[in-house]
Design goal:
Number of helices: 1
Order of helices and strands: EEEEEEEH
CATH class: Mainly Beta
Shape: globular
Radius of gyration: 18 Å
Number of strands: 7
Largest sheet: 7 strands, antiparallel
Number of domains: 1
CATH topology: Jelly Rolls
């Protein structure tokens, strides 16, 4: 008879990498929350988006072709109707793609 040993490794959640899609579309009233986005840029690729940042007293409305830099701690809410792309700068391209 063969014996099989199963080993389970436990990885704490805070050590895991957090991933959020860097593009998407939201219907009217749709809402998407993001964290750790400091220094990123939100681009509206169609429609318009309502964007709010943690500890910011203003809400921001951006239309197709407009973009907005993510300030402070990088926590934000994005609402539609519209499509978005998030990048690290350089004319809307991610730095990894540009190098």
């Amino acid at each position: 008879m063969n014996q099989t040993t199963v080993v389970f490794n436990h990885v704490e959640m805070h050590e895991s990498a957090h991933f959020s899609p860097r593009y998407g579309c939201l219907a009217q009233g749709g809402l998407k929350a993001f964290a750790r986005m400091k220094g990123e840029v939100v681009h509206c690729t169609s429609g318009h988006l309502w964007v709010t940042f943690e500890d910011d007293t203003e809400d921001h409305l951006i239309a197709s072709g407009e973009s907005l830099s993510v300030p402070n701690g990088g926590k934000m809410l994005v609402s539609g109707p519209g499509c978005f792309r998030i990048s690290q700068g350089i004319d809307g391209m991610d730095l990894a793609a540009a190098s």
